């Protein structure tokens, strides 16, 4: 196998933006500048003895692309360098990453505690899927540390949360929740999609495992599905690697290549996303027809100080409520021209969705009310356009509505 990660003469530690450009590169003897795309399912061996050694793990070459592939490996190594993790495995989607991160370490009789405000499919995993296999779960208000404490049981193995949450952008105290989890001998798994690895590093606050939908900001241009799970060498070796190898939600080398190249611009893109979001949140806050703006970068956000302490910038997601309920929210969305209606997020294009009727439609009205998802709420993923065109688009749509 080629040399992975960036090597310098003195083995000096490189800064994140440099790792995002060079980290994990496996250069072939052709000396290509841009990383190669290895579209191969299998590998040939020089000899039968070499094949035997590979299968025994005595020779660390590649065996089969369900287990590992050079392009996928480059993506994993670049993510490891960026996140500051010991190990990682890529997956076909973000949901494959979440499912694997949970199932690889849980058995019947175990118990999971999760924040109630979760991405719809993550909530399905915790609330519906795990209990079918004898794994109990308790949902708590992620911002209430006493609820996390009270939910612990002798068989609690995993705490699970995302912060900021989707779509109401609550910010959960990672350090405090990690401590509560560890007192109970449980691992904290964090879905870090909304914050991105540029803005928030959960491992530094004590989280044990970090998962991403790479479909979002990591690709960032709406092309590919992908996911990644990061954690300690021990977690990956003892739990994750074998689970993925045997169950098979492997990332396609093509998608891995797209994501790998996207990491080169992730820092630039995410910071520009945030600058645009700050401008859009300010604009929305000044509009009479907007009843409420929820954005962690605003001083009126309930966890504004925590967001400042835990995140480098406040992110690109904004939730807001329109005066006049669902009808007014739909009218506004329908009149936008630059901002598109879509449930995706973290894209170069600004995207707006009405969570109550799309991403969180599956929940009962009571469950939505408990999460603070009203019929007047819209969720906006601010893109990379000129911020002035975005505020103009919103302003014109508000006037017309
Ligand atoms: C999109 C998303 C996922 C799922 O990712 P896919 O790549 O669509 O499978 C999980 N968690 C969060 C917070 C997300 O936004």
Automatic annotation (TrEMBL):
Keywords: Amino-acid biosynthesis, Methionine biosynthesis, Pyridoxal phosphate, Transferase. It catalyses: O-succinyl-L-homoserine + hydrogen sulfide = L-homocysteine + succinate. Transmembrane segments: none annotated. It is an enzyme of class 2 (transferase). Its EC number is 2.5.1.-. It holds the Pfam family Cys_Met_Meta_PP. InterPro entries: Cys/Met-Metab_PyrdxlP-dep_enz (IPR000277), O-succ-hSer_sulfhydrylase (IPR006234), PyrdxlP-dep_Trfase (IPR015424), PyrdxlP-dep_Trfase_major (IPR015421), PyrdxlP-dep_Trfase_small (IPR015422). It comes from Pyruvatibacter mobilis. One of its GO terms (cellular component) is cytoplasm. Pathway: Amino-acid biosynthesis; L-methionine biosynthesis via de novo pathway; L-homocysteine from O-succinyl-L-homoserine: step 1/1. HAMAP family: MetZ. This is O-succinylhomoserine sulfhydrylase. One of its GO terms (molecular function) is carbon-sulfur lyase activity. Residues 1-26 are annotated as: Disordered. Catalyzes the formation of L-homocysteine from O-succinyl-L-homoserine (OSHS) and hydrogen sulfide. The modification N6-(pyridoxal phosphate)lysine is found at residue 216. The keyword Repressor does not apply. Its cofactor is pyridoxal 5'-phosphate. The gene is metZ.
